[in-house]
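Notebook entry, structure prediction.
Reason for the run: the old model in the group folder had no record of what sequence produced it. Starting over properly, with the input documented here first.
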Amino acid sequence: PSVQGAIEELDTEKAPLVHLHPEGQLLRVAISGAQYTSIKTAVDAISDASATKPYIVLVGPGEYTEAPFSLKSYVSLVAFGGYYNTIVKTSDNTNHFVTAANASEIVGLSILGPTDTGKAAIYHNALTGTASSTAPFKMINSVFRGGYYGLFLDGVYTSYGAGTTPRVRAHLIHCGNISAGAPDMNKYVYA
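New structure, fully documented this time:
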């Protein structure tokens, strides 16, 4: 089934836009009444995602406290109801919360990351795996609600010499920082 079809079953007024993987295997996460009650468990259950078999993890409204986890390439994590209704927060302030992958995306989530120095809500090292301008990590219509860093981009080139091709690591589309109070976010994007 397509993610768009699954969303339309629920509510056509709140259908988010999935950019990388508009068709794919669909896993549902909700506080109750779905295949999974944990985002991490749903993502960890995916073992065969590929360009020809992408996955969409559709997350229902609610507040989810999760252990750190890694997204996989060709997996879209999509909030049904938008970032004001779907909040994901870490249970571990000592590690990066979500480790992103190339050709993965997060759509419509509100993310509360770790507060320890140097740790990020989303960590992405584009030099791991295959980076390209056609399949970077994407974050769309989402917000950071706090933590030390919002998005930590690792693997930055120190210089662009002859024959060096810069890599497109991440696209942030209609994203923001709405953290307030202490501890406030040190940096929205760190690269």
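Summary: Residues 1-16, 157-162, 180-186 have pLDDT under 50 and may be disordered.
The old model has been moved to the deprecated folder.
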